[in-house]
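Handout for the seminar on molecular recognition.
Each group receives one record of this type.
Step one: identify the two inputs.
Step two: read the structure output and locate the region that could contact glutamic acid.
Step three: write two sentences on what you found, then compare them with the reference statements printed after the record.
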Amino acid sequence: MRYSTNIEKLHPSATIAMSTLAKRLAEEGRDIINLSAGEPDFDTPVFIADAAVKGIRDGQTKYTPPPGLTPLRKAIAARLSQRAGRTLDWKGVVVTAGAKQALFNATFCLFGPGDEVVVASPYWTSYPDLVNIARATPVCVFGDESRGFKLTPAALESAATSRTRGLILNTPSNPTGAVYTLEELTAIAEWARDRGVWILCDEIYRNIYYGDDRAAAPGLLDVPVDSLGDFVLVDGASKSYAMTGWRVGFSYCAPEVAAKFGDLQSQITSNTSTPSQVAALEAFGNVSAAEASVAEMAAAFRRRRDLVTRRMDELMPGITYIEPQGAFYLYFRVDQLFDGDVKDSTAWCSRLLEQTGVALVPGGAFGDERWARMSFAASEEAIEEALRRMAPLVNGD
Ligand code: PMP
Ligand code: GLU
């Protein structure tokens, strides 16, 4: 079949492919522990689900404006303004079908043929593909492993060319769990401002943060305004409120640019599902209930982070991993376990799945075949059992 050059470089999402395979094997009766999926295992909080059901019964089932229900955009802007300590224009908010569509809108509207977009690596699997769909060129740049691969202005400067138009950052990071400090983010923002480079900052894991001094991870809106050039902030309801299937994300940027994103949506999806927007209005608008459920889920993730790192140290002391400061992934090296048959992380993860039933995502999905990613968005029993099954394969027992 001959397809358009638009999708010449398209790959299906590797993370979704892996979790789909694990779910299928489980349905076929295999004893699978699925630590591939990057989605909270909690149910959507009841107060949010109830608001959607009421909305449907009350007839909130028609089209909305393409950039979203105005009260929802205002509620999101109010939350962002509170965090930024300044009033942000609600017309800068565009509600999208998941954070993924916000990233698509931004890459497609801002970049095109001839443009280079630096992708902080290891990267969440969809970023290079989204840049390719826009027919721009992704340039994957890795920071030092000793710093959790975080980038610095020096690393960015050595990768930049006269064609560099954008930088995609993710903090807290999927897959590493690394979190940029405010100082690090500010330095990067100033570099991008001075270079005239757009920052697309994906802060979808902002509320899942293990730092001690504050509830949420530092983000772009904490950076002093003078240090910020052009940017698009991406976030959503999927991770903070356990709403992956509802498909609600958003972007915040200059209203003029947001209007373009709305125009694009008006030709593609019209609007995010209306009942999902009604649910999100409760999630972003009912601040006290939302904060209580975020705090409860973040505490559970912290217990799991502590469990997974403690048990890795006890059961597989030879494994190097990045201590997660946020998100819910453990990124660890597997290249010392390769042999004649297993020469990369994809083969190693396949062997692990075959022999133990534990499903992970190979590092190739994030740009480095020497690593693997374990999601700890699973019960403590499942995590404990998965590590117990993995240990003999890792230790060669
Ligand atoms: N960004 C990152 C870093 C993610 O891990 C995910 C995972 N789904 C997304 C964006 C997409 O989120 P959504 O489900 O809201 O589209
Ligand atoms: N973000 C999740 C992950 O990395 C969900 C899958 C996806 O959207 O790619 O596993």
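Reference statements: The pocket of 4'-deoxy-4'-aminopyridoxal-5'-phosphate (ligand 1) is lined by residues 38, 98-100, 124, 170, 174, 202, 204, 236, 238, 244, 249 (CB under 6 Å). The CA atoms of residues 103 and 147 lie 26 Å apart.
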